[in-house]
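Final report, results section. Input specification for complex C-07:
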Amino acid sequence: MSGVVEKMRASRKVLAEYNYEPAQIERGYAGKTLYINLSNKNIISKDVTQQMKDIFIGGKGFGLWYLWNAVKPDTKWNDPENEIIISPGPISGITQYPGSGKSLVVTLSPLTDSIMDSNVGGFFGPYFKFSGWDALEIQGKADKDVVVFIDGDNGRVTIEEVDLDPSASHLLSDQLTELMAESEQGRKNVSVVSSGSGAEHTRIGVLNFSFYDLRRKAARLKQAGRGGIGTVFRDKKLAALVVKFSGLSGKSNNPADPAKIARTGVKITREINKFDDTQFRMRQIGTANLMTPMNDYDLLPVHNFKYGSHKDAVGISSEVLRSRFTQKMPDGCWVGCALSCCKAVDDFVPKTGPFKGEKVIVDGPEYENAAGLGANCGIFDADYVIEANFYCDTYGIDTISTGTIIAFIMECYEKGIVNKKITGGLELNFGNAEAAMELIHQMGQGRGFGNIAGQGVRRLKKIFAEEYGGDPAFMQDIGMENKGLEYSQYQAKESLAQQGGYALTNKGPQHDEAWLIFMDMVNNQLPTFEKKAEALHYFPMFRTWFGLQGLCKLPWNDIIPESNATSESPEKIPEHVQNYVDIFNAVTGKSIDQDEMIRQSERVYNFQRVFNLRMGFGTRKHDAAPYRGLGPVTEEEYESRQERYDKQLKEDVGINPEGMSTAEKVAAMRSYRQGRYETLIDVVYKRRGWNENGVPKLEHLKELGIDFPEVVEVVKKHL
Amino acid sequence: MITVNGKQIEWEENLTVDRVLKTMNYSFPKIVVRVNGKVVEQKMWSAYKVPNDAEVQAHHLIAGG
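Structure output:
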């Protein structure tokens, strides 16, 4: 045992203890949830009701329901009554089908002030469920840093003070894994949830969920990344959650029909083995496979989403990143995942920061990291991307928001809105990797200009306007946030459907609701507003379903079955949709079909929309998009793709661009594109059963069976 | 003229699927091509002649985020 861990063990002081008989899992559910109050150290067990299972299913649904009951309309993210809820969902934990080890985390966000949800891998969710719990509610705030230990082997939950350093998540995860395991072999049975010092100093804190890697003898990390959940975690003085469960088997989820799950799992595993090497190469490159095609199709965000490609992007291409991944074997974040998208750079030696000169393991980089931290900031250096990725993770800050924040600041710097004096000497021009890295350290350590940057784009716009005289209208145009959440890393200017896929969302512009760029822009499968609206109904609902069950999206469409080529709706991957229906039925013993699957999501999706209303959000004005997300803001953007835009003015808008100045053309294009976006909103709202202000209609809620009195009361105020 | 994903491009003698994709700058490796509704397998792209007035669908099976 290492000296640090020995010291931690000796320092453990139990503040509260709860002993329980772990519930037997029955058809994917434990039937119990665990509530922990950090203020009064109360620990209790709650029953899962049939209504919860029927209406909210699990995962995000359970999280929303518990949060709804915990908070009031005026609750703020840092009020003690705000909760962090982690729920794995009924399918989570099966080992026969890839991507089945996810958890969903729900809280009030310090970025959006409204409801946030994030989908995360790692071992915590399944181990927690098999320890006897369908959800974990954390409420209240501790006085000092505490750790919650959940021992599923012995039925014991404790809140403890431990002498530890919570600033570096990769170290803390390793240390707590060692502390909780009874042997080196037993470390695979432990999972840690932690954050890092960056979560204490910014609004973009993440939660790192660990999965122990026996080959590397280290705890690897997956992130619940969006919306500052880690910031809430550290505000509650929670240093870590630790779970131990040693009895994992293929039967742990105790499904109704294990043979059917096995058959379905064998089928897709064969597909992966047969096709992955010639399709997306998830096993070789993971999501970084997107870097090259995104640049080729002008979809890679460059210079704060001004452009979609760059000549230097080859420096962080899919193949360059692939060459940096050190493992040459399948690597997944949950047991049995044949898609194995996890990638790592072993023995990486950072050139800067507190781990300068030390060998570390970097989980990634994934597409979002390379696109956001790299291309969007004009930095096309793989070493920089890997180091920035490492520090974001261990400081516990969101790589996506970090990339979009730094890109926004860089544009403001180049426009003279901020200068060296304001940034504390950082020359934040696009492409300045040294300055960007220093800013990440400042955000992670709560120093200098990093304290301002870590507030996120929405608050930066206000600060830059009020304190430095920046033009609010210009910053509104170029500040890539919606609802307070920073955009993820896709250039959507040429896809109206994806513009809606980003901004017509419940939590903000994360691509996990809908990713329609190729369907819309390249394949032209959505030529009318009605078709776009149908896609903006179906895909958000379908993808919400993963979050109810504890599933990963990747095995749905990052591997394509042979049947797809002749399918009527290839974009839906119908064979895989049916796989999910089959698995749900095989786990729960129910008998749903594909329509009911979408209905399950619709209930939760609309409930979340009403929850947003209850918290003072969720109407049309909150679905507005920054114009940078819809079209060219500046003359330089227009002129960089002048041929494309001139053609559109002529053929789509009906204006002859000859003789017009660039400024006139930018204005004409803006008027056209904004008009189309407003029309899209109208058609999408109608398809979703909402009124023109984005409020779900009462008859729609009734039809969905979520017209509870408290829901109706909220909605009536907006009708 | 032929139509590719709703956009018109010039037709020429001996126009192959490969040539159409190159003209459109479609470099993505996983595309399902249909010519007048019929799937053309990738191994036939260099030989298959696209007739004039054809409607070509080149669906990129890219998974994205």
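Chain B touches chain A through 20 residues (CB under 8 Å). The domain at 2-60 of chain B is CATH 3.10.20.30 (Ubiquitin-like (UB roll)). This concludes the modelling results for the funded period.
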